[in-house]
Write the structure tokens for this entry.
Amino acid sequence: MKKLFIILCILALPSLLFAGGITDKHKSVIARKKVAAAPACNQAKDVCSGNEDTSITVGESPAKYRAVQFYAQASTTICAADLIMKKNNSPTFNMTVEIWSNNDVSADSIDGTDATLDDDLPSAIVASGVASGSVAASGIGATYETVSFTDITGAITANNFYWLVIIVDNVGDGTDHMIWGVEASGCDGSPINAELRSDDDGISWADLSNTIATEFQLYSE
């Protein structure tokens, strides 16, 4: 009987070692493995800052689109945008932001005095571009604050003009809309050439100003 017990123990030993050894090995590997953190979208890029001397409206009928031009200081991929905004009364629409290419790159100048400004229009969202996540206008306060639009994908190339386009899913009216802060004296570093609006299709644009400086900050990873 004693011999039989010893034989059974010897036969069972490899199974015990296999189960325990492999489990312990896997645990060790898992313990050593580190999951890489996602890149942070916090590298400040093109900016227009100021004191909200004046403003433009967003989501006021009939314009679903607002577009402002900016000059890319570096080649990068924009992943977020901060806009200085406040709500007027009780808007109920949602807002998204996209980066669009410009249709007249060769004629641009960086001093805000492009003689052929009327030819500059937003062309289309940049190649492989992705709109930001949606932001509800109703959640914004009645005093100026930083409104963050995240999860954007917008590749830009240095020394070219692009358009920061904000789109609403349903226009308000003369009472219920958003207000975007503007620096009346213009921007340093990333001059703005034009501000346009499109009623509903993002194709037909109306020229509202050629010296606008809406306040924003763009970010990359």
Q: What stands out?
A: The chain has one helix and 13 strands. The longest strand covers residues 76-88. The CA atoms of residues 51 and 199 lie 28 Å apart.
